[in-house]
Automatic annotation (TrEMBL):
GO terms for molecular function: thiolester hydrolase activity. It holds the Pfam family 4HBT. It comes from the Bacteria. InterPro entries: HotDog_dom_sf, THEM4/THEM5_acyl-CoA_thioest, Thioestr_dom. It is found in: Cell projection, Ruffle membrane; Cytoplasm; Membrane. It comes from Galbibacter marinus. CDD domains: PaaI_thioesterase. Belongs to the THEM4/THEM5 thioesterase family. Residues 20-104 form the Thioesterase domain. GO terms for biological process: fatty acid metabolic process. The keyword Nucleotide-binding does not apply. One of its GO terms (cellular component) is cytoplasm. This is Acyl-coenzyme A thioesterase THEM4. It catalyses: decanoyl-CoA + H2O = decanoate + CoA + H(+); (9Z)-octadecenoyl-CoA + H2O = (9Z)-octadecenoate + CoA + H(+); hexadecanoyl-CoA + H2O = hexadecanoate + CoA + H(+); tetradecanoyl-CoA + H2O = tetradecanoate + CoA + H(+).
């Protein structure tokens, strides 16, 4: 994994906004989910947690801030690729830069600031 994560999705027609395009809210949700998942994975690597031999990732992250720039319509019926790249980790704070592409077309970029969720921490009560 290192400092990059990759996910692939192929969406059905029920996620169409305009004919042939994925609706923007789903693009935002995919980036949010990939961003927090990537942040959790990067936190595991930083804490030397072996992800290859773990069924459940023991770290959870929550979104503190999410910024998305839509670059082009996201084509329906084309496999989507999400890439997350670690920008930095400072304690429980994790920043990840992301892209979402449909084939060779860059459809959206995003940046997420996530916080490593610690159950029963006063911040989350």
């Amino acid at each position: 994994m290192g400092d990059e994560t990759v996910a692939h999705f192929l969406l059905g027609e029920k996620f169409t906004a305009l004919s042939g395009s994925v609706y923007g809210g789903l693009v935002a949700s995919l980036l949010d989910c990939h961003g927090t998942g990537s942040a959790a994975a990067f936190a595991c690597v930083a804490e030397n947690i072996d992800l290859e031999n773990t069924e459940i990732i023991p770290v959870r992250c929550v979104t503190a801030s999410l910024k998305i720039d839509f670059k082009a319509p996201t084509t329906m019926g084309t496999e989507l690729e999400l890439i997350g790249k670690l920008r930095s980790i400072e304690g429980r704070k994790i920043w990840v830069d992301m892209t979402l592409s449909a084939g060779d077309i860059l459809c959206a970029t995003g940046e997420i600031f996530s916080v490593h969720h610690i159950p029963h921490h006063p911040f989350f009560l």
